[in-house]
Design goal:
Layout lengths: L18 E5 H4 L4 E2 L8 E2 L12 E3 L5 E8 L1 E2 H14 L8 E4 H7 L6 H16 L1 E8 L2 E7 L4 E5 L4 E5 L13 E5 H5 L5 H11 L7 E2 H7 L7 H19 L2 E5 L2 E5 L4 H47 L2
Parallel strand pairs: 2-6
Antiparallel strand pairs: 1-12, 3-5, 4-5, 5-8, 7-11, 8-9, 10-11, 13-15, 14-15
Helix pairs in contact: 2-4, 6-8
Length: 313
């Protein structure tokens, strides 16, 4: 059964300014694909001209189910979404988030040229028009989100002001343990490298990344490649960017790959808490075992006088 939002909680979580929040369900899937914009396609099925397109399943990690109908989204759209929710996170949802286009473009690493304004407009339209169904379970709670990532947006062409609103349901995507804080400057350093950006987002959602196969990344990243060995070449090039720019080191074992990277501050705290819990549990078990051993010795010592008496000639 889907969880019911708390009506008293009308805002997104508050993360620090150098970071950006991203929903794990989307980052661990092909929803924001790792492809260049010219390779987009329209996603969805339409049984007749009189009916709206229906969403199709998007490749995602086990435990996550995503359906989407609309123009395919990629890492540029992810940048626009991350920056939009970043600006809206301090205000109640369903209220307007207002910003200057030039400021917004600068924060996503683009200049304020006419072409970049047009790209921003198109991305906001895609985020508003696309229909998403996301379903996942975390810590025993089941979540379902249905709708568009952006409820509405208006651009004032004279003042170049933008006004964006989000529905209150968007906060479900940021439920506890369902989202990740992304290092924004790291992500911006990878602009123009969509597969590297996808890898950065995906591996950032795991405090201790585990190895995955090349075929898995091919599917989850939404790549257009159909031949695995060609995609592996793309993947090695993307990992090369992560290594040279961010210092992330790929660890290869045949067609399996993981990364060695310093954990983020929040992930470091998560690992530290987990290690502390493990150490505490081990200590408690040792104490219980020691006490049990002491009790056994006490029981034996209590029997000794009687045993010695029966053994006397």
């Amino acid at each position: 059964m889907a969880s019911i939002p708390n009506p008293k909680f009308e805002q997104l979580p508050i993360w620090p300014d150098p970071l950006r929040g991203g929903p794990n369900a989307l980052l661990r899937s092909a929803f924001f694909s790792g492809i260049h914009s010219k390779k987009r396609k329209v996603i969805g099925t339409q049984s007749s001209a009189s009916k709206e397109p229906e969403g199709v399943l998007i490749a995602s990690q086990d435990g996550i189910r995503i359906k989407y109908a609309g123009t395919q989204l990629n890492q540029y759209d992810a940048d626009v979404f991350f920056e939009s929710v970043h600006r809206a996170r301090k205000e109640p949802l369903e209220t307007e988030c207002t910003f200057k286009g030039s400021d917004f473009l600068r924060e996503i690493g683009r200049s304020d040229s006419k072409g970049n304004y047009d790209d921003l407009d198109e991305s906001l339209r895609r985020l508003r028009r696309g229909e998403l169904e996301a379903e996942w379970t975390i810590n025993g709670r089941h979540y379902i989100f249905t709708g568009s990532l952006i409820a509405s947006y208006v651009r004032e062409t004279t003042t170049k002001l933008y006004r964006i609103t989000f529905s209150k349901e968007v906060r479900i995507l940021f439920a506890p343990a369902s989202w990740t804080q992304l290092e924004w400057e790291q992500r911006k350093a990878l602009i123009g490298q969509p597969l590297a950006q996808w890898l950065h987002s995906y591996f950032s959602t795991h405090a201790a990344p585990f190895a995955v196969s090349v075929a898995y990344i091919l599917k989850q990243s939404g790549s257009n490649r159909t031949v695995l060995r060609y995609f592996k070449t793309d993947l090695k090039r993307a990992f090369g960017k992560l290594h040279s720019i961010l210092g992330w080191e790929p660890v290869w074992d045949g067609n399996l790959v993981s990364v060695k990277r310093p954990p983020s501050s929040s992930q470091a705290r998560h690992i530290e808490r987990k290690q502390h819990r493990t150490a505490t549990l081990a200590k408690e078990r040792a104490i219980v075992k020691s006490r049990s051993h002491a009790n056994e010795l006490t029981s034996v010592s209590a029997l000794l006088p009687g045993l010695l008496h029966t053994m006397r000639p």
